[in-house]
TrEMBL record:
<keyword id="KW-0418">Kinase</keyword>
<comment type="subunit">
    <text>Monomer.</text>
</comment>
<feature type="binding site">
    <location>
        <begin position="10"/>
        <end position="15"/>
    </location>
    <ligand>
        <name>ATP</name>
    </ligand>
</feature>
<feature type="binding site">
    <location>
        <position position="143"/>
    </location>
    <ligand>
        <name>substrate</name>
    </ligand>
</feature>
<dbReference type="InterPro" id="IPR027417">
    <property type="entry name" value="P-loop_NTPase"/>
</dbReference>
<feature type="binding site">
    <location>
        <position position="159"/>
    </location>
    <ligand>
        <name>ATP</name>
    </ligand>
</feature>
<comment type="pathway">
    <text>Metabolic intermediate biosynthesis; chorismate biosynthesis; chorismate from D-erythrose 4-phosphate and phosphoenolpyruvate: step 5/7.</text>
</comment>
<dbReference type="InterPro" id="IPR031322">
    <property type="entry name" value="Shikimate/glucono_kinase"/>
</dbReference>
<keyword id="KW-0057">Aromatic amino acid biosynthesis</keyword>
<feature type="binding site">
    <location>
        <position position="32"/>
    </location>
    <ligand>
        <name>substrate</name>
    </ligand>
</feature>
<comment type="function">
    <text>Catalyzes the specific phosphorylation of the 3-hydroxyl group of shikimic acid using ATP as a cosubstrate.</text>
</comment>
<keyword id="KW-0808">Transferase</keyword>
<feature type="binding site">
    <location>
        <position position="120"/>
    </location>
    <ligand>
        <name>ATP</name>
    </ligand>
</feature>
<feature type="binding site">
    <location>
        <position position="80"/>
    </location>
    <ligand>
        <name>substrate</name>
    </ligand>
</feature>
<keyword id="KW-0547">Nucleotide-binding</keyword>
<comment type="similarity">
    <text>Belongs to the shikimate kinase family.</text>
</comment>
<keyword id="KW-0963">Cytoplasm</keyword>
Length: 172
């Protein structure tokens, strides 16, 4: 069964997804890249040129397409917001896939995101680390409702990347 990784921006979906795919011999799909290719533009450019609502519509549309694609075995790292809009989480649950939520504490997410915020349109304008942390805390609180509907939840708290990969494999 395909495995879909869910979690907030900076939770390690891409890094863990790539390692996991390599370890179990599945293909790897980064969902942001998938959308970028379809739209022929970076995610930041899509947000700037067409706006967030356009992005969310396309995100939902291409997700249905990807969930139906079962020819190859794959690990998919979703965008941080993907499970939280429209009917997306229900679509994931109705499909024959395993969903795994990488649950990372707010302070750790903030630490990781502070240095990379420019590539992420939703947080690019946060002016201090404290403001970013406050934003992430509220945003994650709202989104947790969706993330926690995943079939597996991995609590990330100090484990290294290969330990997290092993934890995921152990639940399969
Ligand atoms: C978003 C997360 C991003 C990307 C877009 C919106 C979000 O993906 O899809 O910028 O709403 O959390 P990552 O979680 O891979 O950064």
């Amino acid at each position: 069964m395909d495995i879909y990784l869910l979690g907030y921006m900076g939770s390690g979906k891409t890094t863990i997804g790539q390692l996991l795919a390599k370890q179990i011999g599945y293909d790897f799909v980064d969902y942001d890249q998938f959308i970028s290719q379809k739209e022929n533009a970076s995610i930041s450019d899509v947000f700037t040129a067409k706006g967030e609502i356009y992005f969310r519509k396309k995100e939902a549309l291409y997700l249905k397409e990807l969930l139906k694609e079962t020819k190859t075995k794959k690990i998919v790292s979703l965008g941080g917001g993907t499970p939280c809009y429209g009917n997306n989480m229900q679509d994931i649950k109705d499909s024959n896939v395993i969903s795994v939520y990488l649950n990372v504490p707010v302070t750790e997410l903030t630490r990781r995101l502070w240095d990379e915020k420019s590539q992420r349109p939703l947080i690019a304008n946060q002016e201090s680390k404290e403001a970013l942390e406050e934003f992430v805390r509220k945003h994650l609180f709202e989104r947790s409702f969706y993330y926690n509907q995943a079939s597996k939840v991995i609590k990330v708290n100090g484990q290294n990347e290969s330990q997290i990969v092993e934890e995921i494999i152990a639940t399969l």
